[in-house]
Design brief:
Elements lengths: L4 E8 L11 H8 L3 E12 L2 E11 L16
Antiparallel strand pairs: 1-3, 2-3
Length: about 80
């Protein structure tokens, strides 16, 4: 499909002892080769508390010049 980057937006706990959310998803993506590219503080609200959102990215293509068009998924 000529996709060059894979990105993930992940809810992140603000403290290590959060009863509803852990950093497991962040660690999982890190293990898969993603790297942290941004953190937005207190932008997600659930379970009656504020959470950070982190963006992680994994470069999977060669980023050719000129760029190769994305091929639509035909299902």
């Amino acid at each position: 499909m000529n996709v060059q980057n894979m990105d993930a937006c992940i809810a992140a706990p603000r403290t290590a002892d959060d009863p509803f959310l852990t950093d497991a998803s962040i660690r999982f993506h890190d293990h898969l080769g993603y790297r942290m590219v941004g953190r937005f503080e207190q932008v997600g609200y659930k379970f009656n508390r504020w959470y950070d959102m982190v963006w992680m990215e994994h470069l999977i293509g060669d980023h050719a010049i000129p760029a190769v068009p994305v091929m639509p998924y035909g299902g």
